Amino acid sequence: MNSTPMVMTAKEVARGLTIFEIDESLEALVEAAEADAEGNNGEIADSIKSALATYVEAFGYKVDRIADFLKAQKAEAEISQREAERFQNRHKAAENRERRLKQMLVWFMLSRRVSKLRGEFNTISLQANSTPSLSIQEVAQIPASFLSREDRPCVDGVD
User: Fold this and answer.
1) How far apart are CA 37 and CA 49, in angstroms?
2) Those residues with Cβ within 8 angstroms of residue 85's Cβ, 6 or more apart along the chain or in another chain
3) Global pTM value
4) CA distance 122 to 62
5) Confidence class of residue 143 from pLDDT cuts 50, 70 and 90?
6) Higher local confidence (pLDDT), 112 or 138
């Protein structure tokens, strides 16, 4: 067997540990370096120096990876926002096409004086609005010139 200790690179440490674990390891290494310096007239063993350098470098790699992930998430959020706006525009366009088609059907049916259009599977019919748009409390207060009633049919959903 090989008796040489396995040396991990900073990138391997960064990939294998969380930022919290790297931070804990750095604290432990600093404490070990202080204890070693006290026992060796201010000298720190090369193995501790090497480990400190590796973990400091690993901390930097981890910070860079976290920053890159944050940038990627921000970009994904921006792309999703643009996609949502695109879908909202499609939604509005479809609603407008539906409204225009219903208006065209009302015009067509009124101009031909028909109340229903029958197909093999569907029937389209004119229906008066079921909800009044104005509720009058005292009719006597309204001048006679305003008292004309107009029912405006609309095309309700297709049966």
Assistant:
1) 11
2) none
3) 0.55
4) 63
5) confident
6) 112
Residues ≥6 apart with Cβ < 8 Å to 16 = 8
Q: Extract the runs of DSSP E, i.e. beta strands, from 54-132.
A: 116-118, 123-128
How far apart CA 83 and CA 89 sit, in angstroms, is: 10
The C-alpha atoms of residue 87 and residue 126 are separated, in whole angstroms, by 31
Query: Distance between alpha carbon 104 and the CA centroid of its chain, in Å?
Result: 37
Q: Which residues contact 58 (CB under 8 A, 6 or more apart)?
A: 10, 11, 13, 14, 17, 22
Reported as a single tens digit per residue, the pLDDT across 41-96 is 889 989 999 999 999 999 999 999 999 999 999 999 999 999 999 999 999 999 99
Residue 124: other Cβ atoms inside 10 A: 20
122 conformational bin, left if phi > 0, alpha if psi -120 to 50, beta if neither? beta
